[in-house]
Amino acid sequence: MPKASGNGRAQAANAAGAAATLAHQALGMRLKSLRLARRLSLRDLAEATGTSASFISQLERGLTGASTASLNQIASALGVSVALLFAESAAQNHHGVLRRSERPSLPPSDGCRKMLLSRPPLSDMEVYVGEFEIGGSTGPDQYTHGDAHEMLIVLRGIVEVSLGEAHHVLEEGDSVEYTTATPHRTENIGSGRAEVMWIIAPPTSARAELDQYTTWKPPAAR
Predict the structure, then answer these.
(1) pLDDT in single tens digits along all 222 residues of the chain
(2) CA 28: distance to chain centroid?
(3) What is the pTM for the complete model shown?
(4) Contact, 112 vs 131, CB < 8 A?
(5) 47: which residues sit within 8 A by CB, 6+ positions away?
């Protein structure tokens, strides 16, 4: 078998180096996107992983690679799998279908069933749907969560959205925007069932909270 020429070996080495650089850059962009989505600073992530802010910065800029141990620590701190750190192409082509009957949800409380629509690898926002029985609400008190941008859209029925001292009656197709740091509450004040959608960016829920959503099924068909 003929030996590879010096020029051929150089070309192969250059190609391998270019591929490694692209891989580092893709990993860095994905890492930065996940970190920002979780509102973590470089220092926050460094402290959580036992590394340094300069190392995380270089990793995000594609200037260095990381050991398997470091990647495991980073993935754990971000609440994702190591595979997801390399899922940039999957994120760009994510066309996951979620059937209405398969929506992960929390058990109904205060006449409201809250369901999670957004799922990995899309992680820059959270999307939920709430179904309210007549008189149902998000709870007896207003609540806050983080300081993100939230939009509520009424899909069906009539609801009252309380934002601090302000109260807004919204009907099908209406929407309202506010920061999640504003005390808020939603109640179905109509004569039938109501349904709303919440869109939150960046996400404010911790991974442990999202893990509580399951494919809960009602005890009997509606």
Answers:
(1) 555 556 655 554 454 445 456 667 778 888 888 888 778 899 999 999 999 999 999 988 888 877 777 888 888 888 776 766 765 444 444 557 888 888 888 878 899 999 988 876 556 788 999 999 999 999 999 999 888 899 999 999 999 999 999 999 999 999 999 999 999 999 999 999 999 999 998 888 766 666 666 755 554 443
(2) 18
(3) 0.59
(4) yes
(5) none
Q: First and final CA of the chain: distance in angstroms?
A: 73
Hey, is 176 helix, strand or coil? strand
The torsion angles phi and psi of 116, rounded to 5 degrees, stand at -95, 125
**Among the listed residues 70, 87, 95, 79, the one whose alpha carbon sits nearest the alpha carbon of residue 30:** 87
Q: How many CA atoms lie within 13 A of 106 on its CB side?
A: 17
What tokens appear for 73 in the block? 């620590």
Q: Which amino acid is at 130?
A: G
Nearest Cα residue to 121 out of 37, 205, 213, 49: 37
Q: Which two tokens stand for residue 7?
A: 């020029």
The token duo for 177 is 């925007």
